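Notes, p. 3: input format for complexes.
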Amino acid sequence: MFRKRWLALPIFLVLTGCVRQSSLNPHGPAAREIGTLEWWILAVFCLVTVVMWILIALLVLSRRGSLEEHAPVDTGGGQKWIVVGGFAIPVLILAGVFMSGLDVLADFPMHDGAMLMPAQMRLVGHQWWWEIYYLEGPLQHHFITANEIHIPAGQPVDIDLASYDVIHSFWVPELHGKVDLVPGVRNRIRIEAEQPGTYRGQCAEYCGEEHARMILLVVAQMPENYQRWVTNQLQDAAVPANPQQAEGQQLFQTRACSLCHTIRGTLAQGRVGPDLTHLASRKKIAANLLDNDTANLSAWATHAQALKPGVLMPNLSEFDGEQLRALVAYLQNLR
Ligand code: CUA
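Output follows (335 residues plus dinuclear copper ion):
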């Protein structure tokens, strides 16, 4: 079906360069530096591969028609090939790659001791979601949200990285490389998005059953839009707009929900799961696994264990249909 096989490699490279969440498609200064290094390494490896193919082809052609089964071990120069081609050249190339890697790494200090300014936010890894503390300005301007980091485009943002349980790793390939979130250690990363946009990230350190579904979104906005977003996030949760939503709020506060989740301005003050004060303003739920819509909110409330087995969120089977609709209506009003 695919006749021109040689096209596979260039097509693969172009595609990986275009897709979202690819380090070959950088959108920030750090990612650009890493991306350049990556392309160079890729080019060198391709060159080595081509040279090897040529050598193998020459060897095959030179032996065509020969009755000799294989060459004797040492026919003057056989071992030299091994020393030069199998040892010296690989050592040189790998040393070059290693040194360039160190050189790029030196531009990205990742321990807070190396930074003079306090971080603008702190990202805390949980099994299996991300908690974000916004720490800019005086205390009354701080707030907590989850799974969706908003930043102003075109400005560097320093983020402290911490973990609540096991080792996680922050990785938004289009913006930067990976830095781990280690319990008891405070790492730091400086990200910058050159353009407004949504950049997908992923936990990059195996952290348990749902590691693959620990997804992160970085939303870069024009500075004025970002400020508007911050102003909204600082508000307490919206009050119910109708009796159905009021019933939903009542259910949220009096049933299991409030034991784990906070909705600021209400009696729900749980700290185990994500803060839901402005849940409806987020694009996705369940650590960006599912779209934030009526069907998914209902399914998540009642069947979280089927959608994401092992997650701390239990299946809440206590609601009847009407109660579930009220609960979801309430949550969808939390913009
Ligand atoms: Cu968190 Cu993998």
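The helical segments are 8-18, 29-63, 78-105, 223-234, 243-254, 257-260, 294-307, 321-332.
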